[in-house]
C-alpha cells in the first residue's frame, strides 16, 4: 500500500477509529516504512500530550456556584410530563393529528371550492327538489285525472313541465 | 450504598423531586463545564452556557427517551447551547479578541497559577485553528472519550462526518503541537 494512503489514515489510526482491515493494513505498513512510523509517532505524541494538557487544565465548579446553577434551573419552570407519554405514542398522536388536520384543510380549501365552482352542489339540490316535487305530486294528484311534473334546468333556469293524462299520454309544455 | 440510575432519577424529577435533579447531573458537571470552557476559552462564558443547558435539561426532561444514554442527551443540549452562544457572540463581537481574555482556574498558589496559564495557553494554541465543529468532535472523542457513534448522535451528524472532522482536527493539532512544543522547548533551554 502507498505511503500517501497510509498517511491519510494516520490521524484516525491514532485513536483506532478505523475499520479493522484498515488498522491491519496500516500496522503492517508501519513495520516496513520508517517514514510513516515517525509520522505516526508524531501523531501519537501530539494527541497524548494534548489529552494530558486537557486533563491538567481541567476546570471545576465551586460547590456554591454549582448549587446556584442547579437552583436557577429548577426555579425556571416545572418539567411537564407529556400527556402523550410514553414516547412512541407521542409521535403516533402527533402524526395522527397532523393527518386529520391535513385532511380537513384539503377538504376545506381544495375539494369544497372545486365542487362549488363546478356547481355540483346546487345542481344536486335542484335535482333533489324536483324529485321530491315529483313524488309529492304523484301522491297528491293521483286521485286527479291529470298528473303534472315540473323540472327546472339549473344552467338556464328553464322549466320543463310534463303533464300526463290518466292514460299516461304525454303532453309537453315549454 | 445503592445508587439510583439515571432513568430512575429522571422519573423522580418528573414526579416533582427537585433534589434528584442535582443528583442526576452531578456526575456530568465537570465534563459539561470543561466542554463549554474549551468551546469558548472563557470560564465565565462556560458557566453561562452550562446554566442555559441546565435550564433546558430541566424544562425538557420529559422529552428524554428512557433507556438511551442520559449523558449523551445532556451533552447534546450543552453543545447546542454552546453553538447558540458562539453564534450570538460572533454577531456582537470578534470571537478571537475575546478568546485572548482567558480566565484560568482560580488557584491560591501563584506557581500553580503560572503553570495553569502556561498549559492553558498551549491548549488554546493547539485548538485555535480548529473550526467549532472540529473542536466539538475532538473534545467529545478525545477529551471526553465518547465513541464515534455517540459523537455523531450528540452532534446530529453521520459517523463519516465525525471521522472526517476528527481526522482534520488531529492533523491541525499535530501541526500546531509541533510549533507549540518547539517554542516551549526553546523557552526551557533559555531559562536553563
Give an account of the 3D structure.
The complex is a heterodimer of chains A (174) and B (192). In chain A, strand 2 and strand 3 form a beta hairpin. Chain A is mainly alpha-helical. Chain A has six helices and three strands; from the N terminus they run H-H-H-H-H-H-E-E-E. Chain A is elongated, with a radius of gyration of 43 Å. Among the domains of chain A are: 54 residues; 54 residues, no CATH class. Chain A starts with a helix and ends with a strand. Chain A has a three-stranded antiparallel beta sheet. With 192 residues, chain B is mostly helical. Chain B has two domains: 97 residues, RNA polymerase sigma factor, region 2, helix turn helix motif (Rna Polymerase Sigma Factor, Chain: A), CATH 1.10.1740; 88 residues, Orthogonal Bundle (Arc Repressor Mutant, subunit A), CATH 1.10.10. In chain B, helix 7 packs across helix 10, helix 8 packs across helix 10 and helix 9 crosses helix 10. The longest helix of chain B has 33 residues. Chain B is globular and about 55 Å long. Chain B starts with 5 loop residues before the first helix and ends with a helix. The relative contact order of chain B is 0.10. About 4% of the residues of chain B have low confidence. The interface between A and B is large, with 39 and 52 residues.
Descriptive tags:
heterodimer, A: 174 residues, mainly alpha, three-stranded antiparallel beta sheet, 6 helices, 3 strands, 9% strand, B: 192 residues, Rna Polymerase Sigma Factor, Chain: A, Arc Repressor Mutant, subunit A, 2 domains, 0% strand
Give a topology summary.
The complex is a heterodimer of chains A (174) and B (192).
Chain A: H1 3-14, H2 20-32, H3 34-56, H4 63-76, H5 87-118, H6 120-140, E1 147-152, E2 159-164, E3 170-173
Antiparallel strand pairs in A: 1-2, 2-3
Chain B: H1 6-15, H2 19-25, H3 29-40, H4 43-59, H5 70-92, H6 95-99, H7 110-128, H8 132-143, H9 148-154, H10 159-191
Helix pairs in contact in B: 1-2, 3-4, 3-5, 4-5, 5-9, 7-10, 8-10, 9-10
Amino acid at each position: 500500500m502507498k505511503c500517501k494512503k497510509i498517511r491519510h489514515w494516520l490521524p484516525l489510526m491514532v485513536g483506532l477509529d478505523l475499520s479493522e482491515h484498515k488498522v491491519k493494513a496500516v500496522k503492517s505498513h508501519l513495520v516496513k516504512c520508517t517514514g510513516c512510523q515517525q509520522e505516526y509517532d508524531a501523531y501519537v505524541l501530539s494527541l497524548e500530550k494534548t489529552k494530558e494538557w486537557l486533563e491538567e487544565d481541567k476546570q471545576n465548579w465551586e460547590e456554591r456556584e454549582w448549587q446556584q446553577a442547579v437552583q436557577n434551573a429548577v426555579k425556571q419552570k416545572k418539567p411537564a410530563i407529556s400527556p402523550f407519554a410514553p414516547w412512541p405514542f407521542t409521535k403516533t398522536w402527533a402524526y395522527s393529528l397532523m393527518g386529520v388536520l391535513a385532511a380537513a384543510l384539503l377538504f376545506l380549501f381544495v375539494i369544497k371550492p372545486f365542487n362549488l365552482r363546478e356547481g355540483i352542489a346546487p345542481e344536486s339540490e335542484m335535482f333533489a327538489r324536483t324529485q321530491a316535487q315529483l313524488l309529492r305530486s304523484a301522491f297528491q294528484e293521483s286521485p286527479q285525472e291529470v298528473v303534472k311534473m315540473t323540472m327546472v334546468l339549473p344552467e338556464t333556469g328553464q322549466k320543463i313541465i310534463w303533464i300526463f293524462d290518466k292514460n299516461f299520454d304525454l303532453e309537453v309544455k315549454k | 450504598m445503592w445508587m439510583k440510575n439515571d432513568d430512575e432519577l429522571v422519573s423522580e424529577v418528573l414526579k416533582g423531586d427537585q433534589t434528584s435533579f442535582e443528583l442526576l447531573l452531578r456526575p456530568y458537571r465537570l465534563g459539561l463545564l470543561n466542554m463549554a470552557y474549551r468551546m469558548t476559552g472563557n470560564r465565565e462564558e462556560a458557566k453561562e452556557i452550562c446554566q442555559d443547558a441546565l435550564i433546558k435539561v430541566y424544562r425538557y426532561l420529559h422529552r428524554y427517551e428512557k433507556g438511551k444514554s442520559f449523558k449523551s442527551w445532556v451533552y447534546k443540549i450543552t453543545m447546542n447551547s454552546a453553538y447558540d452562544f458562539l453564534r450570538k457572540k460572533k454577531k456582537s463581537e470578534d470571537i478571537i479578541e475575546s478568546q485572548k481574555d482567558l480566565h484560568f482556574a482560580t488557584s491560591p498558589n501563584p506557581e500553580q497559577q503560572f503553570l495553569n496559564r502556561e498549559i492553558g495557553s498551549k491548549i488554546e494554541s493547539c485548538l485555535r485553528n480548529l473550526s467549532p465543529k472540529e473542536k466539538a468532535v475532538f473534545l467529545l472523542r478525545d477529551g471526553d472519550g465518547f465513541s464515534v457513534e455517540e459523537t455523531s448522535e450528540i452532534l446530529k451528524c453521520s459517523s463519516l462526518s465525525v471521522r472526517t472532522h476528527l481526522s482534520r482536527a488531529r492533523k491541525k493539532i499535530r501541526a500546531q503541537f509541533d510549533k507549540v512544543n518547539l517554542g516551549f522547548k526553546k523557552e526551557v533551554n533559555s531559562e536553563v
